[in-house]
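User: My collaborator and I are trying to settle a disagreement about how two of our proteins should look. Neither of us wants to argue from intuition anymore, so we agreed to look at predicted structures for both before our next call. Could you fold the first one, then the second, and keep them clearly separated?

Assistant: That sounds like a sensible way to settle it. I'll keep them separate. The first protein:
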Amino acid sequence: MGDPWTYLRPEAPAFAEWKEKGSRFLGHAGPIDSPSGALAFLDGLRRRYHDATHHCWAYRSGWLDALESRFSDDGEPSRTAGQPILQAMEARGVSDACVVVVRYFGGIKLGPGGLARAYRTAAAQALEAARLAPHVIHVEAEVAIPYGMQGLLRREAERVGADLEDVGYEGRLTLRAKVPKGRWTEFESALSALSESCGGGVTWKLR
């Protein structure tokens, strides 16, 4: 993605199928809002494909310091299924998502390398089929500013891609700022400059 504060997440569930030496690998990718959402997504697919040989999965929730991830091989040899699925997600910069690959065994063993490639491919194709949308990590702050300076503040907000929402007026205008985290330092410097220009009349605090 380039921006470390931006990641991709699926907007809706998606499906892709991969076949390898008679085995079918059914890849399902879906959005989640928490780790418990990943387990609910998995449970639904286990019920749907109750006769499958394996239900291998991985999820990623949150981002950077708040990132949580898990995976399961569900009976396949260690690290030949869940980890390759997770690696497919990492390669695309995907989070807030769960990927489940359901396997129907076709009678021919693939070996550890073949298994890992098949699970990774099914996961990657499911993610390719998903509508992946960028999600930007934001910093939220409450800014108080003299009413006559709001035009300058809005100009700085527009420059860094921040959203402003009016929340009140008691002597000064109070606004809620939602700033892309990668631009926060730049925006805070602009707030400092505005405050210095009016004798400290601009204040802010993180929410």
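The second protein, kept apart from the first:
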Amino acid sequence: VGGEIVGSTMGILAHNTHVTFN
């Protein structure tokens, strides 16, 4: 479960970063 949470968090962070740059 911890790994899934970390993966989801990093995925959301990457998505937010792309949105911010866009």
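Some points you might bring to the call about the second protein. The chain has a mean pLDDT of 71. Helices lie at 2-21.
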